[in-house]
Amino acid sequence: MHRTNLYLTEQQTSALDRLAAQEGTSRAEIVRRLLDRALAGEDDDLVADLAAIDSAFGAYRDAEVAPREPGQREDHLAGLWERTG
């Protein structure tokens, strides 16, 4: 797998969290499933979806991100694995 960062609106994040909770899985798994569906042509409006992704690219390029201390990423990922099994 390759790691990819996405910037989502609050509404997208909320909807994604609801789906993940309903299915008992992670946000990342929901995104992978939706992307697989879209890439397989099972999405009703793939062209519009890809255009939206393209237009959002770089929207947060100037956002400041708090620095992480060594080990914080690993601790965060370990916690995710514990919650998602």
TrEMBL record:
Name of the featured protein: CopG family transcriptional regulator
Top-level lineage group: Bacteria
Organism phylogeny: Bacteria, Bacillati, Actinomycetota, Actinomycetes, Jiangellales
Region described as Disordered: 65-85
Organism for this UniProt entry: Jiangella asiatica
CDD domains found in the cross-reference section: RHH_CopG_NikR-like (cd21631)
Sequence ranges of Basic and acidic residues compositional bias: 65-77
Gene3D superfamilies per record: Met repressor-like
GO BP annotations, alphabetical order: regulation of DNA-templated transcription
Domain Ribbon-helix-helix protein CopG as annotated: residue spans: 2-40
UniProt xrefs under Pfam families: RHH_1
